[in-house]
Write a structure and sequence with these properties.
12 helices, binds zinc ion, TIM Barrel, five-stranded parallel beta sheet, three-stranded parallel beta sheet
Length: about 400
């Protein structure tokens, strides 16, 4: 990502204020306009009470000061005393096509080739047949990745290329983008992505004015999407982000501090909803191009709305990657959704190469285990998906809609 990491603390107005004291400090008064979070007695704030305790309205105990007032939110990791069955699922029930991975072996220290070999061994052990590398790369960078993955492991990996975004204001941009796509296709690209718009457009360039940014529905990309259709290349698009990224980093922030560097609150960007409008326009303008909106199109929190989009746009598909925390916290709604749209959702991880990561996914999707430790801070509940939903999710849909022409 080209986007600069902003100083989110400055923007949220919480610089220098620890979260530790937000909780149970007695005797603080609220009301002044430049107060910091720690000056506010949240215990008496009606909105805070409703968010914290729900309709019931109170803790049911008399909160008093104590050592926990000094614990930092980022350190809080409660141990569960729940005793329920824990199922270990070493290998997926069907051979899996993971449609959302990145070039992980290149990250960190160590020999990339060795890490790739180990990864393929892990894929064998957990039951992943093929992984789709969303390289986002073009030019030499893409060509090198083709060599790296497809020469030693043809069939085990499929590569998606990126979109050229140099000099997008130049009138020759649309033709250049198409020409590079054709070149990457000849080299072995079998899809495009991940093409991300978190509100700044596809270049993620904060220096561009709003009317200069390149969003998915821009007419400069019309020829590109048409070429994707012609070459039978699905496009993996990352539209918006988790909605909490647009909310302030304060006591009401939904995700843990682990995610605060993804926060976008206060940036001069499109809203979550505005980005999804752009998604819909793109889908409508290019009805024969296949778009896979990753991370449940960042609407995993509102599956009814997401279902409306699937009903409206037959060329819209989803990947479930990195949204274990959405389906895990609403297992019944998620199961109903996946059962209603068994031919529209693809399995993906986007979470690295660890065996235990894959196995946590199998446990989440295949068992009815309860109160599993999850990411963010939401415990997960197993979806216990039936075979008729699991098989298309794991591989059937990918086999049907992706381009499996040999390279
Ligand atoms: Zn990704």
């Amino acid at each position: 990502m080209k986007k600069n990491r902003r100083d989110f603390l400055k923007i949220s107005g919480l610089a220098g204020v620890g979260f530790a004291s937000i909780g149970l400090l007695p005797g603080c008064s609220s009301g002044s306009s430049n107060e910091t979070s720690s000056d506010i007695n949240w215990q008496t704030d009606p909105e805070w009470q409703k968010v914290q305790y729900g309709e019931w309205g109170g803790p049911g105990v008399d909160p008093r000061p104590g050592p926990m007032d000094e614990i930092l939110l980022k350190d809080y990791a409660p141990k569960s005393s729940v005793v329920v069955p824990e199922t270990f699922v070493p290998k997926a029930k069907y051979p899996v096509i993971d449609v959302h991975i990145h070039n992980y072996p290149a990250r960190g220290d160590g020999d990339a080739r060795e890490k790739l070999d180990e990864w393929v061994q892990s894929m064998d052990e957990v039951g992943v047949e093929t992984s789709v590398v969303l390289t986002g790369a073009t030019g030499n960078d893409f060509d090198r990745l083709v060599e790296f993955y497809l020469e030693p492991y043809p069939g085990r990996f499929q590569l998606y290329c990126g979109l050229t975004t140099d000099d997008i204001a130049n009138p020759d941009y649309p033709q250049r983008a198409v020409a590079e796509l054709e070149r990457c296709y000849e080299k072995g690209a079998r899809g495009v992505g991940e093409l991300t718009d978190k509100g700044l457009g596809l270049t993620s360039d904060p220096d561009l004015a709003r009317n200069e940014r390149l969003h998915h529905d821009d007419e400069r990309l019309d020829a590109f999407w048409d070429k994707c259709r012609e070459l039978n290349l699905p496009v993996n698009i990352h539209m918006a982000d988790h909605p909490s990224a647009w909310e302030p980093l304060d006591v009401f922030q939904e995700r843990t501090p682990d995610y605060q560097h993804f926060n976008l609150h206060g940036d001069d960007i499109l809203s979550h909803g505005e980005i999804l409008v752009r998604r819909d326009r793109t889908l409508e303008k290019h009805p024969d191009t296949i778009f896979i909106a990753c991370h449940l199109s960042n609407q995993g929190h509102d599956l009814a709305k997401l279902g409306e989009a699937l009903d409206t746009y037959p060329n819209l598909y989803l990947d479930i990657s990195a949204r274990d925390y959405e389906v895990g916290r609403t297992p019944r709604a998620a199961k109903r959704f996946l059962t209603k749209y068994p031919d529209r959702v693809l399995f993906g991880t986007d979470m690295g190469m660890q065996k235990s990561m894959y196995q946590a996914w199998w446990r989440l999707l295949e068992t009815d285990d309860e109160y599993m430790v999850g990411r963010v801070w939401w415990p997960y509940y197993g979806l216990d998906l039936p075979e008729s939903v699991l098989e298309p999710l794991y591989r059937g849909n990918a086999r049907r809609i992706m381009n499996w022409e040999n390279v």
